Amino acid sequence: MARNKQKSGCQGTGFASRIKEEHIFLALALFFGILWLFLIPPFQSPDENEHFMRSWSLSDGNIFLEQAKDDDGHAVTGAYMPMDAADLPDRLEYRMIMRNPFMKFDFRLFRDNVLTQDFKAGSDKRVFKKIAVGDYCPIAYIPQTAGILAGRALGFSPLGCFYTARIFALLFYAFMVFAALRVMPFGKNILMTVALLPMSLGIAASLNTDIVLNAVMFLFMAYVLSQAFKEPPKPIAGKEVAIFLAFCGVIALLKPVYTPIVLLLLMIPKERFGDSKARLTFLAGCFALTFLLMAAWNLTIAHALITGDWRQNALDPKYQFHVALTHPLRMLGVIFNGYFHYPLASGGRGLFRQFIGILGWLDVVFPPYLYFIAGLFLAFQVVVSQNGPKMGLWPRALLLASFAIAFMGVSFAMFIGATPIDSSTMLGVQGRYFTAIAPAALLAISNTNKKYFSGPVSRALKSPLVVGMGMAAILLAATYYIALRYYFF
Question: What does pTM read for this prediction?
């Protein structure tokens, strides 16, 4: 009898040990992601209307946007597209709901404006639609465009294509992060927690380009760590070099401010290359490819960066860039004010809440207890010892440096492109801008010394099942408040 009990206990332990972080993540990401992509009304995610238009234009084969004149004679960029698709956001009255917590989504919009009318994705009547996100590389829209192409091939209406694009985007994010967790040698709970935060999952259930950015950055960090801490340190193979070059090329074409993440390649030890010359050649090739592709794309679309009437919002990127060069201390002061003296809704102390999750157009705010619990839960994953090798000073320094430089890059971009002339406070920065690089900072300060915080309680609480249950509880509470925000009960 005792033997049977012992065998049963071993089987239970074996079953629990087979449940990995990537399995927990995939189950939660797919369950809540699919729920949210239908629960969150259309175009109620940041700039989702613009990203839908850009994805549709790419599905028409328009790699670059066209230029035209608006009613005031200013140059604008956009694309010709079916009127039914171009008018979809306005037919669903997304502007009336965004940033207005008292407005709810009306299901009659589906019945009256979509379901009862014969909207065809291939309508012959085409109109010019201004699109404000023409500077993004098409790589950032691969899953969204694939979803729209699939919807159009199936004969769906523009709204049906919108939802297929959301589904494709979610699947891309879920399986890319799943792959990252599989190859990551340690710190899996940290990455899983960041990837499942309400903000991360809310973006993953939309058409935002951060879906691709976050997924690629997570996988890149995981792959670098797997190669840097590979035991035994076998010589790096040509396939691995090709993978790193592909990562550098994709990262360079996503968002320039995040390219400092390639500094993590310095983490790979020289023993993997045989000699210092081979290592130097590898690093030089990766860094050169990153810089050249980034410069090439930005020069190619430079005409689309300064279009329209910037000054109608008191914006002048050229002037702000001049200020940054001639008065750097003033720029730093404006950036400092943006993080510490800006109103709670958009920056300063609100930045942490945005990182955890202020969804929609910064109008789906959760109760304070949810931010406290999520932050405490994330901090616990950093404090308890990680399952893996002890990380030395050099890898930690590289992780922190890549985060810090990217952080400054985001701040500089907001000062240049989103802060009005003569403003004393930087505007435009949001907590979600740091999701892609947050794991780097958290891993840098994480506990990899098994002597500290590694008792039985800590070992139990950091198990994938317990972490998964904690994140499921947070996401379940977030689901309730999302429903409360957008629907009458």
Answer: 0.91
